[in-house]
Amino acid sequence: MKLYRIAAVTERVLRQLWHDRRVLVFMLMLPAIAMLLFGYSFSGDITDVRIAFIDEDNTDLTESILESLQDAEAFKVTVLDSVNDPQHLLLSEHYQAVIRLPDKFTSLYYAHFAMGVATSAQGTVDLTLDESDPQIAATIRMGLADAMMDLGEGGPVDIETRELYGVEVRFIDSFAPAIMGFVVSLLSIVLTLLSIVREKVDGTFSRVWVSPVRRAEFILGYVIAFGLIALVQSLVVLTIGKTVFDIVINGSIFWAFGCTILFAVGSVGLGTLLSALAQTESQAIIFFPLVILPSVLLSGMMWPVQAIPRLLRPLTYLVPVTYSNRLLRAVMVKGLAPWQEPVGFIGVLVFVVLTIALSSVVLRQSAGERE
Amino acid sequence: MSNRAPVFHAETLTKRFGTLRAVDDVTMAIDRGEIYGLVGPSGSGKTTLIRMLCGLAVPTVGAAELLGSSMPSERRVVEHRFGYMPQERAIYRDLSVAENLLFFGQIYGMLRSRIIERTRDLLDLMKLSDRAKQRTDKLSGGEKQRLSLACALLHEPEALLLDEPTIGLDPALRREFWDHFHELNDNGRTILLSTHYLNEAEWCDRVGLMQLGRLIAEGTPDALKAMASARSGQERPDMEEVFLILTREGVAGGVS
User: Fold this and answer.
1) Closest among A131, A70, A65, A66 to A96, alpha carbons compared
2) How far B205 CA lies from chain A's nearest CA (Å)?
3) pLDDT tens profile B166-215
4) Per CATH, which fold does B1-81+158-256 belong to?
5) Which of residues B176 and A146 earns the better pLDDT score?
6) Taking CB atoms and an 8 Å limit, are B55 and A211 in contact across chains?
7) What residues of chain A lie within 8 A of the CB of B52, using their CB?
8) CATH tag, A49-149
9) Helices (DSSP H) in chain B: which residue ranges?
10) B109–A15: do the CB atoms touch at under 8 Å?
11) What is the ipTM of this complex?
């Protein structure tokens, strides 16, 4: 193995990308676009849910419930006078919920606790809810429950919370590590695949094969080139994450980059593997959705793996991005060292070893048996 | 690995793809300093034969040797000593002319200064000097082919395997390529090339006629003409007629 031959392959791959400005721009834009698009549209923070609030009791207690609801970012609260038919409001006025605190709510509420023993006396909140969107309905239920809990003193239960892995981790905070792994791996796979298929089509692969370049040198050359690119892309994701979304990074940046690059190495291996299955560039393109769809849908990037039906869940363990998500989230959000997330870490390591070893085998076949 | 070993040597060389015999029982030896032309229609096995001789394809039966080393098992021994020009132009379309040469020089371990020197000479020779910074997908077909040849010559190999080096070139440019071949040959290079332009056979030291994977006739252009003339009774046949006569009778006559 000679360093200068590895360097020659790396230099060549980078020069090719440099000449293809469209690809270069795309490479830098994709992580930026993905972060902005997903970051804004999937921020997970539901806002502007229209709620009608009807207070028939008018006490300090009901007033504080109203204030809690108004303080919640999710809701736009409109205070209405008493109505007979709350359902009518949902239909004609397009409220997503009507919250009614009936007369005597406060006195019943306090009565319940004053006795010191179980009693049937109980304050009742009358909630009319639009269930057509379960996510919004859940937000409303949660917001109302929060408002009740905010009553504090004298409330039914006091929940003492110990928040682990960072206070108030938002969706975007745990999304940034996922998008980093996804974008870096997607581009490494796609560009390696296209590049090697193109070498086969153009015949440059034959020329390299008869030259002193060894298979390992060839693969390493590619790995280093895309490792460098992975580093730049991670920087783009983190910069946008930090400046635009103010993401919280609890862990070490060093580990974040290290793990991303490690994952990029496996992706170059996977791209090389797939290149054996395609003889032309148009055949290679068929693989793109095959790579993208499972990565997005089954990796736990958009929604937790636990939200995927049990029947499909074993499939998630075949998707490499599943492991990079676990690993990068552990490193960036939880602030752990890679080995403290063994499933993710070992998953990524196995991915790297397997794809690199196999790609070395398929390269021999790509070179040899063709006419 | 003595100098007296043939530069290219095939012994009952056979390559099967499934039931297709791409190369069928070919035995040949090409000595130092020869220009040997493989002539035959497309699909006659020229490319596969060349690929086996440079270690790109593994023989099904028989042996391929290059500069005394068995291919592909001992290809590492001779990898610096031969140059190969594949039928596809085999240059990076998204690199410039000079960058292509730089890469192929680097992987052969040439010093950067030496690469620059050779690049200047070769681009001069191939009349590509003003194209050095041009991306190769902007070049004309002939220019790409000249660059492809330059890439094979860069590391100064003593043996050359050129697969259809003149395909698609206009007659004037083909003449120019042949001038290069003879010049290289005068400098001691051994050249094995394939072509389906029958008139080019005239310019080789020796010619092998291939048909359906078999080497059906072999000899100097004059010897082949005499052979054809004797078979058909035709006076002074040109190469095209030689080919037609020998391929018609070759299989039946069993000449090899």
Assistant:
1) A131
2) 26
3) 988 888 889 999 999 999 999 999 999 999 888 898 899 999 999 999 99
4) Rossmann fold (3.40.50)
5) B176
6) no
7) none
8) 3.40.1710.10
9) 46-53, 75-78, 97-107, 112-125, 141-153, 171-186, 221-232, 239-253
10) no
11) 0.89
